[in-house]
Specification:
Elements: H1 6-12, H2 15-25, H3 35-50, E1 54-62, E2 67-68, E3 71-72, E4 76-88, E5 94-98, E6 113-121, E7 140-143, H4 147-157, E8 162-165, E9 201-204, H5 207-222, E10 229-239, E11 241-250, E12 257-263, H6 271-293, E13 303-309, H7 313-321, E14 329-336, H8 342-345, E15 348-352, H9 362-373, E16 377-378, E17 385-386, E18 391-394, H10 402-405, E19 416-420, H11 437-456, H12 459-491, H13 497-516, H14 526-554, H15 569-575, E20 578-581, H16 600-611, H17 619-627, H18 634-645, H19 650-663, E21 666-669
Parallel strand pairs: 6-7, 7-8, 8-9, 12-13, 12-14, 14-19, 15-18
Antiparallel strand pairs: 1-11, 2-3, 4-5, 4-10, 6-10, 11-13, 15-19, 16-17, 20-21
Length: about 675
């Protein structure tokens, strides 16, 4: 049986060796398109080639002219030194930041600067009215608010020359800003090279040091003393260069393949994010290569491809250059933050499913491996398997390379393995001592197992996997229907049977689509898929009957047909238009880089709209893009996103497509005729 081949993989993978790779990679300052990233890529390449793998580096232009699908490239950046000193008040002269000591002390992609400047304290620097009456020309601002917004307002609009940032993001529930008082928050500028863009430098201070400096500034103002002055030195440059993607391939019997991807970027040290994912992928590749070369695993029918990329940018670049490979890529897995010690970082090990618009067999295959690997112990009686690590399977959130692969315009379904939340996420405290060899082994084994099982699967495996998928579908469907029933009992608000029916029908449609992807593993599986689809429909009918019985007992009104509510203004707009995408891959930073550009105010308005949402602000628009097939109205897309996430937000989705239209990335198709 195919799962038996998981055993030698688990035995071969070394979590200790993988942690050693984390330590090596974490030494490099791995900003996308930089000398430090290049050095890390060469380390990975050397390690792959040292064990005999076919591996190479592909280089892509890092400049302000190149475009990879919707993603604009950007210039390479390198820094050699940077220091910040407090000169006045004289009684408190000290060094505030030093690039040699902490690479995160500089806002990444800062430009060169040498000189002294007065410090102006801002509340948070995020609203225009805060700047009224302030003279910022030639000065630096001290803020704990979002540094990107502060730069746009303080530097571009009011003439400041730099930013001193001491914010610390909240990571609920494991980190409040002062939980890491001496850590530095990862901060970066992303230059778009627009005509009105004003580049600057910036330093990052810890929350403790920043609060101390802010208190000094308030005291000086209160006592009518001279303002604070700092002396800043930054030696850096932006230039046309390159960004690297490390590639390795274990050949199979055909040119089809499975894919493992991990991003190699982020500043020094960034151990869990994402030296851990890069090292786990490296260990998975080494283990599989050795097992196949030694004959301990049969050479699979498909090849296995491994990619180490600058996050998002590298995936856009690689796929846009190699569109001929896309139809051959069956499925994959993304490794992002997989090695942290849960006792240190407070995280759960998560299997994030691909979006429903990209439903596939791969989620349930990886879930089976996830379950098998999670059985670390038994009960005190030796009965029943127990997991010693908190694990969860969640719906799609996005935010990493899998969201590009899994876009239906690309069509490579790809779950993500990730730890979340992480107390040390995007801070200087994300160091190697928080990496757990056991977690590294777990992640590398899962990646290797998924890559090999997809590559090796044929008739027997496709048949078994269809049964596995249908069993897991039944569990998910029963849970979803029961959630609706329970909500009606607990809240006293009737849940209409139409709502239950819509959810069941939606999940059935997604399951049928997922079963259809088994044809990628064995083209003769059609009759099996047909039979399992009938089984799933019977399961759906049974759940509808169960819901009717339960809801009738709980709230008789629930069985009555509910009058159709009038459409609100945003829903009316959504019902009237059909968007057709003109691009591959979801739009990310390209909100500023389409055939036409958004103005800074338009971009700012979009960010404020997204961040105003309590949940899903960044994810829902991406899911809406996935469902846009040139035939669905925006209202149908709103409905599908709600069914997938439980959140209905027609305004957010309409505005997203309006921005895409403004950028020239979509066209409007004729609206359906009633």
């Amino acid at each position: 049986m195919l799962l038996d081949r998981f055993v030698p993989i688990r035995a071969r993978v070394s979590g200790i060796a993988a942690k050693q790779d984390v330590a090596a990679i974490a030494q490099f300052h791995r900003i996308q398109a930089s000398p430090g990233y290049r050095a890390a890529a060469e380390y990975v390449l050397d390690a792959l080639q040292a064990c005999g793998l076919d591996a190479w580096i592909e280089r892509f232009p890092a400049d302000s002219k190149s475009q990879f699908w919707t993603e604009a490239s950007f210039q390479e950046w390198g820094a050699t030194s940077a220091t910040l000193h407090l000169d006045e008040p004289a009684a408190h002269q000290c060094k505030l930041a030093d690039w040699r000591e902490a690479k995160l002390s500089l806002i990444q992609r800062s430009i060169s600067f040498d000189g002294t400047a007065e410090v102006v304290l801002l509340s948070d620097g995020l609203e225009e009215q805060e700047y009224e009456g302030l003279d910022l020309a030639g000065k630096v601002v001290l803020t704990q608010g979002d540094h990107t917004t502060a730069r746009r307002l303080a530097v571009e609009k009011h003439g400041a020359v730099g930013i001193l940032y001491y914010g610390m993001g909240r990571v609920a529930p494991v980190r409040e800003p002062m939980d890491l008082p001496d850590a530095l928050q990862y901060a970066s500028f992303w230059w778009t090279d627009e005509p009105d863009e004003v580049k600057c430098f910036g330093f990052v201070l810890s929350p403790r040091r920043g609060a101390w400096l802010a208190d000094l500034a308030r005291k000086a103002a209160k006592e009518n003393k001279p303002p604070l002055r700092v002396r800043a030195h930054v030696a850096s440059r932006l230039y046309d260069g390159s960004m690297e993607v490390v590639c390795a391939r274990i050949p199979g019997e055909t040119d089809e393949e499975s894919v493992v991807v991990s991003h190699l970027c982020h500043p020094q040290p960034s151990a869990n994010d994402n030296a851990s994912g890069a090292a786990a992928a490296l260990e998975a590749a080494r283990a599989l290569h050795g097992l196949v070369a030694e004959g301990k695993l049969p050479r699979p029918r498909r090849g296995m491809r491994f990619l180490w990329v600058p996050e998002m940018s590298g995936t856009y670049a690689y796929l846009s250059r190699h569109e001929e490979l896309i139809p051959k890529m069956i499925a994959g897995v993304n490794l992002d933050m997989v090695g942290g010690d849960p006792a240190h970082n407070g995280s759960t090990f998560i299997l994030e499913r691909p979006p429903d618009a990209s439903a596939s067999f791969v989620s349930d295959l990886l879930a089976r491996l996830f379950d098998q690997l999670g059985n670390d112990a038994t009960s005190h009686a030796g009965l029943g398997a127990l997991a010693l690590v908190n694990t969860a399977t969640t719906g799609f959130s996005g935010g990493s390379d899998h969201m590009i692969f899994a876009d239906p315009t690309v069509g490579i379904s790809m779950p993500m393995l990730i730890q979340n939340p992480d107390k040390f996420y995007h801070t200087s405290a994300d160091t190697v001592e928080h990496i757990d060899p056991a977690m590294m082994a777990r992640a590398a084994t899962l990646a290797a197992g998924a890559a090999y099982l997809v590559a090796a699967a044929g008739q027997e495996e496709a048949t078994w996997l269809g049964s596995e998928m249908t069993a897991r579908f039944q569990v998910r469907l029963t849970q979803e229907v029961q959630n609706l029933i329970t909500r009606s009992w607990e809240t006293g608000h009737a849940v209409s049977i139409e709502r239950v029916d819509r959810k069941v029908d939606y999940m059935l449609a997604c399951h049928r689509d997922a079963l259809g992807t088994l044809l990628r593993l064995w083209d003769g599986v059609g009759p099996v898929v047909s039979g399992l689809s009938h089984d799933a429909e019977a399961i759906g009918r049974a759940e509808k009957r169960r819901a009717r019985t339960a809801l009738k007992t709980a709230r008789p009104i629930a069985l009555e047909s509910q009058p159709t509510a009038d459409l609100n203004t945003w829903e009316e707009q959504a019902a009237a238009r059909v968007p057709r995408r003109l691009y591959r891959g979801p739009v990310q930073r390209a909100l500023g880089n389409g055939p036409r550009r958004l103005t800074p105010d338009e971009r700012g308005a979009w960010v404020r709209l997204v961040t105003s949402r309590a949940a899903g602000g960044w994810t829902l628009p991406t899911l809406a893009e996935y469902w846009a097939d040139g035939r669905r109205t925006m209202l149908e897309i709103v409905d599908l996103v709600e069914l997938e996430t439980g959140i209905r937000d027609p305004e957010l989705i309409v505005r997203r497509f309006e921005l895409l239209d403004r950028l020239g990335w979509i066209e409007w198709m004729p609206a359906p005729v009633d």
